[in-house]
Each structure stands twice: as C-alpha cells, then as structure tokens.
Amino acid sequence: MMAIMTLTFAVIPTHDRPSELRQTIATLGLPPERVLVVDNASTPPVANVDATVVRDDEQPPNLSRLWNIGLDWAHEQAAGEKYAVAVLNDDLVLPPGFLDAMVEAMDRTGAVIAYPDQFGRGRDWHNTVQGPVEPRNDRLTGYAFVLSGQAGLRADERFRWWYGDDDLEWQAQAVGGTVLVGGVTVEHLHPNASTAENPVLRDQSRVDKQSFIAKWGQSAWERRPGETT
C-alpha cells in the first residue's frame, strides 16, 4: 500500500531573538512557504527570514493565541490535504529528520501529537489514557511538538503563557493520544528564560495553573513531596 503523503508546516512565535530564530528555521529544513513566523512585538520587526511573517503586538503575549494563528494558517494552506504542524519556540536546534520522525510516529501509533525524547526514555511512549491524565513530569515539550492537522486541535486561549501545551496534550487523549518519539532530541537554547526575566509572565503562569486546575480538576505536573496545588 502506498503511504499517504503528509504536508508539513511550522509556526514559530518570536520576540527579539533574530539570530536564534534564523537558526531554528535553518535546522527545520522546510521551504519558506511552509513556515509562519508570528512576530510578537520584536524591535526591530522580524525581516529577511526564510518564512512568511505576520505581526502581533499584544503585550504581554497570549502564547496560545499565537499558536492558533499558525494552526489556522496551516489549515488554510493545506487546502484539504493531509497535514501536520510543528509548533516551535524560536530558540531551537532541531536534529536532521525531526519532522519526518514526528509524522512517522503519529502515523504508526495513531497519536495526534508527537514530541521529542527529552526525558531519556530511549523508546517511543504512546500515551492514550482516557479520562483524567496521570500528572507526570515527563510531559509534552511545550517548546517543540507536532500536531496532526486532521485532529482539529486548537490551543485554549485562557492559558496565556503556561499550561497551553498541557491542555493540548489532555485534549488529545480523546482523539488518539500523544507519542513521545524515542531517541529524537531537540536542543533548547534558552529554557524558561522569558518567564524568569519577566515578573508579569511569572504571575501569568500562576494564573494559568489555577485556570488549568479549574478546567481539568488537577494539575498536569506530578506533585513532589510536600508540594501543594
């Protein structure tokens, strides 16, 4: 049986990281017409990159909405074809074949979100829990994941900075689950740097946690000894 070809796209929200953004785009390996950069109030504005660029100036940013701008764009570009969308931070070094590995894992397992193995499992792990998802610390990597377009998932814009990735992961359980792709890793250059440097975003992260608990009845993170929600 001939394999069904999957169109692949990428959305990359960015703010004031021009050199890292160019590196992320270069290691992604997609043609410019398949990459959307959502420039969130960069100074100067993003220019001269191998991608389509749209501008969104809202500050503080709503990261879930920035993702949705890209997901809606990819849906329009695909025009009914089977497709997948990589949702990426602007400070990544992606390994060769990253997108192919993510799409292959989704096709093989029936998962609708794939993410890299940053947790040392060394093998695929297909999470298809129905109902409440077990909280754990080796969760979906919010800085690099790939969604199946056919699943129709969109980020919940109530989660403005954190927990949008966790919400997508938990949404996915009803329509095929997620797959951690063993042996595929991504270099993340500035993990949590924006949150650490911005007290407004730190405050928003706490609000997002409470919003997640209100929606799902529990946190997505494993509770450590002595920790309370």
Automatic annotation (TrEMBL):
Residue ranges of every copy of the Glycosyltransferase 2-like domain listed in the record: 11-131
Entry superkingdom: Bacteria
CDD domains linked: Glyco_tranf_GTA_type
Transmembrane region(s): none
InterPro entries (alphabetical): Glyco_trans_2-like, Nucleotide-diphossugar_trans
Name of protein: Glycosyltransferase 2-like domain-containing protein
